[in-house]
């Protein structure tokens, strides 16, 4: 019994041991199987994760490169793209594709074209110059045959250092550029350092060539000749990968490394991106430890993908992981197996068989999963490609700043089938309002545009067409439309539609018009400038030549402009020119041209006035308009002008000669007393020469003692005695003889010489008068003429005071003669000067009274002692009743103001009798004596009755 029991126990223990051994063996088997299943599942998961990242990188990159094509399409469609358009077009793309670091357009500029290009860019970017990075320094680019200049770059912020940069010197860049230009395709550069964003980052560019529109591009030579630059998408590699993977949280999987090379294999020098761990080919740890047991290390997954024609290599690796971390099931199986082995071999058996089944199912499922995964990836890639292509076209149209319209190809209406949002915003018509209709409604009511014929012909002949049209928005406002039209073929090759691209170029047209206006008009007055005058005059001459008619060229010069400019400053001068420019324009006809030559000179072209007096009336209108009182800075002015007229064809056959002759005639008008016009005659040329000679000699007349004073007596009407004299200047020129003041006073005034000459006259007159008084020739008054410049000059009081003091003459024996225009210019200033002169004690007379623009209300405010009636009225006394009436009114006006009256230019006894009869106080004229030299006058005094003072 005992033996049996022992045998049974041994048998049991053997069974148990056997069971245990079998159990252990099975446990070991189970453990190995579970481990393999878990490892396979992990490997598949890792491969899926790796493929997800590889697809995200390659797909994202090709998406971003597609955007470059969108931008490139913009240049190829519209040729000229403004900075604003580039900005508007790229801003939404950059916002939607943050992986794009920047988009730019680089222009090819030849060395010969560099100055013009820089000048053009400076209008937009002050101080613009083509730059370069040499030795890390940003500075002007050295001379090169060609420059590839970054003209636009978006976003602008942070990329400003790249604007104007010549990228020719970057070799990697240059290789890619020349490949892309030669083969006409999108091409990626190798890795390079980017200069944007203040600092250097590894990046690369994708370039797409831009060719001249419509230039042939079939051969390499044609493409090289047609290229004008390229668009570029700029990628910063770290930013790119973080955007593509980081945003989807694909970068932070523990232990997983992604290494991307800008080459077809894993070349360390081309490593573009690595998220942490460098790739590990063999592990020293895995070589030493029982890898199959302790570590889980799936094989790296890699792929080669295409970046704009360049192969890139991506490799995804998983760090070896401790077996303990990842194979909990295996451990449980081992422990469970050990425990279960002790309990029952059958249980172990069943466990083993169950795990076999699990193993098979898992294997089948894994295979099915891998297969499905493969199909899914392929389907997804195909659909993505198709969708991308469609989206690209849709996007180009939707985001386009220009209107895009698709019309049916069937005439005569060519009904609209589609309009993009830009069309709606440009025209104000909604899509619903235009679909199904003909585009003709954009032409408005007028159909007089010639360019429309080109578009109608293109539609009829089913070809491309282009025209600039005047179109009208829904609100009736007009705009300029640069319109391109092109036929679209269906799958069968028949033309089914037309695509129409409209570009609102109103702003460009306005800008051009503004530039043209500025180039042709005077900035101050808005009148035509020299340039436009030359154009108008030439065409008016040609027209007059064809029609056989006359043409007048009128030179207008303001008589007192210098005075206003000198006394009140340039602002007042400018204001005066503006007002007078307006007035002159208002005085001529619509067809006449009024231009400002600069300063106070205007030139007029009057084409349409025959010799029936119409032209003369226009000249008079101009003089009257200018002479109207003028209020500037609270001062009232009276300005006159002098006009010179040259007539085509008699006075010249071309613009230069006519203008020159009108100028000469104008000078003659000035010489003859201003506020008048003169027609050119050939003798004036001789006068001009003489004038030049006089001008040169006048500078030395004073120092060479060539100036002398003549004296003309002034007679008291009642007593017949000489009561005074007028000192009149003469120039004894060594060649010309005695020169009249009428020929040189105005000149001396223009040259500024009147101040020393005038002071000399006052001093000499005072000394001479005093000498005669001392010689007992009577206490007479001496009258001296003042010129306008002398009157307003700061030295007048001083020189009068000095002359009186030096000569010892009592102030009451000195009379200063002023003209009306001198005091009526700036009335308040004139009153101040007159009062100061009066305080010295001198007499004041208004010369040539009645010829100027006296305002009687002012006359009473002037502290004037004498009115001198102009000799023209005296001459008219006997000739016409009007002249006589004027003289009578002047005498009574002067007396009512308690002023004395002197009549000058008295030549006959009748004139004297008339003046005496009407109470004139004093007279002066050839009837008594011409102006004579000092000696002769002395003789006159000695023999004629004169006042004793
Ligand atoms: N036909 C005619 N003429 C007569 C008769 N009596 C006098 N005259 C002329 O009439 C002019 C009178 O001078 P004014 O009106 O002050 O006109 C003067 C005056 O405005 C200016 N002038 C003369 N001397 C000076 C001067 O020293 N300083 C300035 N600023 N101007 C002067 O030159 C102008 C012309 O001077 P003159 O040639 O000397 O011409 C003088 C004189 O010779 C007459 O009975 N019949």
UniProtKB/TrEMBL annotation:
Tree of life domain: Bacteria
The PAS domain extends over 389-439
Q: Which residues cross the membrane?
A: 331-352
Q: Which InterPro entries match?
A: Biofilm_reg_signaling, CHASE_dom, CHASE_sf, EAL_dom, EAL_sf, GGDEF_dom, Nucleotide_cyclase, PAC
Principal subcellular localisation of the protein:
membrane
A GO molecular-function descriptor:
cyclic-guanylate-specific phosphodiesterase activity
Q: Which reaction does it catalyse?
A: 3',3'-c-di-GMP + H2O = 5'-phosphoguanylyl(3'->5')guanosine + H(+)
Q: Where is the PAC domain?
A: 463-517
Domain spans labelled GGDEF: 549-682
Q: Where in the cell is it found?
A: Membrane
Output the GO biological process annotations, alphabetical, semicolon-separated: cellular response to nitric oxide; signal transduction
Q: Any idea which UniProt keywords this protein has?
A: Membrane, Transmembrane, Transmembrane helix
**Domain annotation CHASE: ranges:** 77-244
A Pfam family (short name) is EAL
Q: Give an example GO cellular component term for this record.
A: membrane
Please report the stretch or stretches of sequence annotated as the EAL domain. 691-945
Q: Which PANTHER family match?
A: BIOFILM ARCHITECTURE MAINTENANCE PROTEIN MBAA, DIGUANYLATE CYCLASE DGCP
Name of the protein: PAS domain S-box protein
- Can you name the source organism? Massilia violaceinigra
């Amino acid at each position: 019994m005992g033996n049996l029991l022992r045998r049974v126990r041994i048998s049991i223990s053997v069974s148990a041991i056997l069971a245990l051994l079998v159990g252990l063996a099975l446990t070991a088997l189970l453990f190995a199987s579970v481990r393999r299943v878990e490892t396979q599942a992990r490997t598949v998961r890792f491969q899926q994760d790796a493929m997800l990242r590889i697809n995200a990188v390659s797909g994202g990159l090709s998406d971003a490169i597609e955007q470059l094509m969108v931008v490139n399409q913009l240049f190829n469609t519209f040729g000229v793209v403004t900075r604003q358009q580039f900005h508007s077009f790229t801003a939404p793309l950059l916002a939607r594709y943050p992986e794009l670091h920047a988009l730019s357009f680089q222009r090819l500029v030849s060395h010969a074209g560099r100055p013009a290009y820089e000048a053009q860019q400076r209008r937009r970017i002050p101080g613009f110059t083509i730059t370069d990075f040499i030795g890390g320094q940003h500075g002007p680019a050295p001379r090169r045959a060609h420059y590839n200049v970054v003209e636009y770059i978006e976003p602008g912020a942070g990329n400003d250092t790249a604007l104007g940069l010549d990228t020719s010197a970057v070799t990697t860049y240059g290789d890619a550029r020349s490949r892309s230009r030669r083969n006409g395709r999108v091409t990626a550069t190798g890795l390079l350092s980017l200069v944007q964003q203040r600092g250097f980052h590894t990046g690369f560019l994708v370039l797409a060539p831009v060719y001249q529109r419509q230039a042939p591009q079939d051969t390499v030579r044609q493409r090289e000749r047609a290229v004008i630059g390229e668009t570029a998408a700029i990628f910063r590699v770290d930013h790119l990968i973080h955007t593509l993977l980081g945003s989807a949280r694909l970068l932070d999987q523990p232990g997983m490394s992604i290494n991307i090379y800008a080459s077809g294999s894993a070349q360390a020098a081309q490593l573009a991106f690595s998220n942490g761990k460098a790739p590990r080919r063999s592990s020293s740890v895995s070589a030493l430890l029982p890898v199959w047991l302790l570590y889980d290390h799936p094989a790296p997954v890699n792929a080669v993908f295409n970046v704009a024609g360049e192969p890139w290599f991506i490799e995804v690796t998983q760090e070896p992981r401790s077996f303990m971390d990842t194979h909990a099931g295996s451990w449980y199986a081992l422990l469970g197996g050990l425990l279960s082995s002790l309990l029952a071999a059958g249980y172990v058996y069943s466990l083993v068989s169950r795990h076999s089944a699990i193993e098979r199912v898992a294997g089948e499922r894994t295979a099915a999963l891998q297969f499905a995964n493969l199909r899914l990836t392929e389907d997804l890639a195909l659909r993505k490609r198709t969708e991308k292509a469609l989206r690209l076209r849709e996007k180009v149209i939707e985001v386009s700043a220009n209107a895009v319209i698709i019309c049916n190809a069937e005439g005569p209406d060519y009904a609209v089938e589609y309009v993009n949002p830009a069309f709606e915003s440009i025209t104000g018509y909604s899509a619903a309002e235009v679909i199904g209709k003909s585009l003709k409604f954009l032409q408005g009511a007028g159909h007089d545009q010639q360019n429309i014929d080109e578009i109608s012909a293109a539609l009829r002949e089913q070809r491309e067409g282009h025209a600039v049209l005047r179109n009208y928005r829904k609100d009736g406002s007009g705009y300029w439309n640069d319109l391109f039209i092109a036929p679209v073929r269906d799958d069968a090759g028949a033309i089914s539609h037309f695509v129409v691209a409209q570009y609102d170029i109103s702003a460009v047209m306005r800008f051009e018009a503004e530039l043209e206006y500025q180039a042709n008009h005077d900035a101050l007055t808005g009148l035509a400038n020299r340039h436009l005058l030359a154009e108008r005059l030439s065409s008016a001459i040609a027209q007059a030549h064809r029609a056989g008619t006359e043409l007048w060229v009128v030179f207008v010069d303001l008589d007192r402009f210098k005075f206003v400019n000198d006394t009140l400053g340039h602002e007042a001068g400018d204001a005066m020119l503006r007002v007078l420019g307006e007035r002159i324009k208002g005085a001529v006809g619509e067809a006449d041209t009024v231009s400002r030559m600069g300063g106070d000179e205007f030139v007029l072209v009057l084409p349409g006035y025959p010799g029936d007096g119409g032209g003369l009336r226009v000249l008079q209108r101009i003089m009257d308009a200018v002479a109207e009182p003028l209020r500037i800075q609270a001062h009232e002015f009276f300005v006159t002008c002098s006009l010179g007229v040259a007539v085509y064809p008699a006075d010249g056959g071309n613009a230069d000669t006519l203008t020159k002759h009108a100028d000469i005639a104008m000078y003659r008008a000035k010489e003859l007393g201003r506020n008048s016009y003169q027609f050119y005659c050939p003798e004036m040329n001789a006068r001009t020469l003489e004038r030049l000679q006089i001008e040169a000699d006048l500078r030395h007349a004073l120092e060479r003692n060539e100036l002398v004073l003549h004296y003309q007596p002034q007679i008291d009407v009642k007593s017949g005695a000489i009561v005074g004299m007028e000192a009149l200047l003469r120039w004894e020129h060594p060649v010309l003889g005695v020169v009249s003041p009428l020929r040189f006073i105005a000149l001396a005034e223009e040259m500024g010489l009147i101040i020393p000459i005038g002071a000399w006259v006052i001093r000499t007159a005072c000394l001479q008068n005093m000498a005669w008084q001392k010689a007992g020739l009577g206490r007479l008054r001496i009258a001296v003429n003042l010129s306008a410049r002398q009157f307003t000059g700061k030295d007048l009081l001083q020189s009068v005071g000095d002359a009186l003091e030096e000569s010892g003459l009592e102030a009451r024996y000195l009379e200063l003669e002023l003209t009306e225009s001198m005091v009526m210019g700036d009335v308040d200033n004139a009153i101040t000067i007159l009062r100061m002169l009066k305080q010295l004690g001198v007499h004041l007379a208004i010369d040539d009274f009645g010829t100027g623009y006296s305002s009687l209300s002012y006359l009473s405010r002037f502290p004037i002692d004498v009115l001198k009636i102009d000799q023209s009225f005296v001459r008219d006394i006997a000739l016409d009743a009007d002249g006589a009436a004027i003289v009578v009114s002047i005498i009574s006006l002067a007396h009512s103001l308690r002023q004395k009256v002197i009549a000058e230019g008295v030549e006959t006894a009748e004139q004297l009798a008339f003046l005496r009869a009407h109470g004139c106080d004093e007279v002066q004229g050839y009837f008594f004596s011409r102006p004579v030299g000092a000696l002769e006058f002395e003789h006159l005094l000695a023999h004629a009755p004169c006042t004793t003072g």
